[in-house]
Amino acid sequence: MSITWNDSAPIYRQLRDRVVAMILDGVLNEGDALPSVRQVAADFQLNPITVSKAYQELVDEQLVEKRRGLGMYVNEGARDALLKNERERFLREEWPALYARLKRLGLDMDRLMQESRKQEGESA
């Protein structure tokens, strides 16, 4: 897990978002253990309290569970719940501005799909 911290959000929130991305990307799957608080704190030179706060948010969101003496584990259904929430957030917060920009630029779905196919062909 490589992370570059920025000033746009608290570090614990950025760490939480990185774990969420790892779940969405399939790097962490249901039942997988998260790296220990001590390990993450040491790897990224963070205060263990910062790591604990990020992990606690994931517990509060029911994405991971604490297993006493064993650590934190990704809950069953965590990825599906995240996908649902992220899709709803995208449609509510990001899509309206993106759609308005596409309209302003005169781009339609056919053109966007053509460009996507071109890019997929170039990366293959």
UniProtKB/TrEMBL annotation:
Q: Which Gene3D superfamilies match?
A: 6.10.250.1220, Winged helix-like DNA-binding domain superfamily/Winged helix DNA-binding domain
Q: Does the keyword Transcription regulation apply?
A: yes
- SUPFAM superfamilies xref list: Winged helix' DNA-binding domain
Keyword annotations for this protein, in alphabetical order, are: DNA-binding, Transcription, Transcription regulation
Q: Has keyword Protein biosynthesis?
A: no
Give one Pfam family, short name only: GntR
Protein's UniProt name: GntR family transcriptional regulator
Native species: Tahibacter soli
